[in-house]
Amino acid sequence: MDNVKKIPVILDGDPGHDDAIAWTIANVSDRLEIRAVTTVGGNQTVEKTTYNARRIAALLGITAPVAKGNPGPLMSKPMTAGTFHGETGLDGPKLPEPDRPLCELGAVELMAKVLRESEDPVTIFSTGAQTNVAALLLAHPELKEKIGCISIMGGGIQYGNWVPAAEFNILVDPEAAKTVFDSGVPVQMCGLDVTEKALVMPEDFERIRHVGNEVSRIVAEWLDFFMIVHREMGYEGAPLHDPNAVLSYLYPEIYDIREMHVDVETSGLFTRGCTVGNYGMIPNRGVLEKNNARVVMNVDREKFVDLLVEAVKKYDGREVKL
Length: 322
Ligand code: RIB
Ligand code: CA
Hints:
With 322 residues, the chain is of the alpha/beta class. The protein has one domain (7-313): Inosine-uridine Nucleoside N-ribohydrolase, Chain A, CATH 3.90.245.10. The protein is built from 13 helices and twelve strands. It has helices spanning 17-27, 46-60, 82-85, 107-117, 131-139, 168-172, 174-181, 192-195, 202-209, 214-232, 243-250, 283-288, 301-313; strands spanning 7-13, 32-39, 66-67, 122-126, 147-153, 187-190, 199-200, 238-239, 255-260, 262-264, 275-277, 293-299. The strands form three sheets. Strands 3-2-1-4-5-6-12-9 form an eight-stranded mixed sheet, with helices on both faces. The chain has a two-stranded antiparallel sheet with strand order 7-8. The site of calcium ion has 9 residues, from helix 1.
């Protein structure tokens, strides 16, 4: 793979246990080069997700700049999800303190700088609210052509999670999500349709723990924490949402991906944040509306877990600062 050009990527999220695992995977892909890490509020406040992002970068040896996003969504009040991710947003194993200063630029300006300076199209992995990505598209429309793909974890064609009609990342900032889906930039959407099938079982936690390096131990302990509330909710395994945004981009062959037109509801009393997809059952709509997203609907769960295990194995022998 040495002579193959790496794809420049931006990691944008609200770490968050599953964001952290998605970044752990992206960081050891020999096909990706992380050019920036940017944060949004969501799982916790943007202050806390930014501190977490900097600690994850220190743990994984990510040397790309980390920049903080805006304190809240484009038009609504900030929401947080401490229930699932704890008071810090990344409760569980001890992590190193940040080993680099926070980038002086804000998230949107760092994203714009990366796009401007990149010779090749940049892929953005968005695993939180799409506030930064939307602000980038609105403030710098001339840079749209420098974005190869926006691969998101967000939405759900068939159901929501935070409210019946809407998934958390989209509900935090529906206007931002609508801006992204309507932008004309290629979007790949991993919604709950696939991420709730990407269950990591407790026996898989042990496979990861037994890899035996520091990062695999921490990933297993992130899963331990993430499973606490999910077990109480009746889940047999941890629905590992965010890594699908990275793995479905790198390994589409283990997924079922459909071209769709997706609209984002921004005004419904009970449906605000709903991602409405022409799931192919409504031919007229398919004719009237140009498809605007590749929507990921299913995954080979065992292969998903195998790829997660393979990724943490790549940290064998790597210096990990704790
Ligand atoms: O609904 C799941 C999503 O919300 C994941 O990205 C999780 O990290 C939270 O941001
Ligand atoms: Ca997330």
